């Protein structure tokens, strides 16, 4: 949930006290985790009773950035280098057929209804401490690697909080926070200057809490799939404000006609096609304010027409009494996801692996970028993990791939978000507050294949 969404649920009097005491910026409530992150991970996570507190648990890692030549810490057998530094809030990645890497430099659209008044002021303070909240660059940059190094180009600008990108033939699609727009692309181009054509509107402002919209194309290229997060934690602004949200849309690429492909997904962000089965999978950022041990984020395969519970239930049919009025009919349909990723880890990025520049134990599975918690004591996430797959399903505990984003003193050097593979099969990681793109390969003393 966004900080602004959290503040919307706190009374003005409480906000005055919290703002005056800086409690939301530097402390947290007395509530703390009783389980480990591992207990809330895997196909059968522990789901303890909910914990309701007068004020939400808030524990935020202040961002310090990377100093000098410091980098995240790779797993044994891996090495990490910086593909690019000094970017402006790089959040998402897409690799073009010629190997060029596109980076969405993006931030919240900051609609007035989201950030005005005392609540908005406190929300902006929290976002600033976490390294967010600046005006959105609204730009896609292109990184091209040559024997002389990496050159950066301004590929496309004038966007509206963009995230998802996908190329189908010569049509390049961008998911802004409020629309999908198509642009003509020429192979090898370093800039798009011609205006785009809107394919379809997406749910946007004036309230737009989960503003990031992602895109993938179907295998045959006829459809696009857009992931669209909820507008609140648990329907706090009424379900009319959630129309078309907490869902994955299927969009006809020729006409823009669309339908809800799956719903009840609080904030689906990463999407990808699992190589063995061809199924669509998504990473989902679950709900907050039920205690440090609830609710686990997850990855799951996405069934056409399925309902995954939000806001009325979580992890299948565990009822959330905060969602009113109740909908027992929908709860009865709610499907439990495939694999939990730990509570409040903010699991956003998702990409499936393949043989290439990484050791063989990392060639069948999914890499997941965990942006890091705000609603857990102690923090969770702040790393990139790998979930092994066998026969199209998760088949073991997650492996830490890239850590060190969260420093021992509780500050954050960076926060990983989007993940993808480059043409060599190396893992690329967008670090939005570290303003860097990291490239992970096999260590030089190991065989990459």
Quick recap:
The chain has 449 residues and is mainly beta. It is built from six helices and 29 strands.
Kindly estimate the percentage of residues that lie in beta strands according to DSSP.
25-35%
| Overall tally of structural domains | 1
CATH topology, anyone?
Neuraminidase
Distance between the termini: 40 Å
Question: What does this protein structure show overall?
Answer:
- By secondary structure, the chain is mainly beta.
- 9% of the residues lie in helices and 34% in strands.
- The protein contains six helices and 29 strands.
- It has helices at 3-7, 12-21, 23-26, 112-115, 117-129, 328-331; strands at 41-42, 73-74, 78-84, 90-95, 101-105, 139-146, 149-157, 165-168, 171-175, 179-184, 197-201, 213-217, 223-228, 247-252, 258-263, 268-273, 280-284, 296-301, 313-314, 318-319, 339-343, 347-352, 365-370, 383-390, 393-394, 399-403, 416-421, 427-431, 436-442.
Secondary-structure map:
Layout: H1 3-7, H2 12-21, H3 23-26, E1 41-42, E2 73-74, E3 78-84, E4 90-95, E5 101-105, H4 112-115, H5 117-129, E6 139-146, E7 149-157, E8 165-168, E9 171-175, E10 179-184, E11 197-201, E12 213-217, E13 223-228, E14 247-252, E15 258-263, E16 268-273, E17 280-284, E18 296-301, E19 313-314, E20 318-319, H6 328-331, E21 339-343, E22 347-352, E23 365-370, E24 383-390, E25 393-394, E26 399-403, E27 416-421, E28 427-431, E29 436-442
Antiparallel strand pairs: 1-21, 2-26, 3-29, 4-5, 5-6, 6-7, 8-9, 9-10, 10-11, 12-13, 13-14, 14-15, 16-17, 17-18, 18-21, 19-20, 22-23, 23-24, 24-25, 24-26, 27-28, 28-29
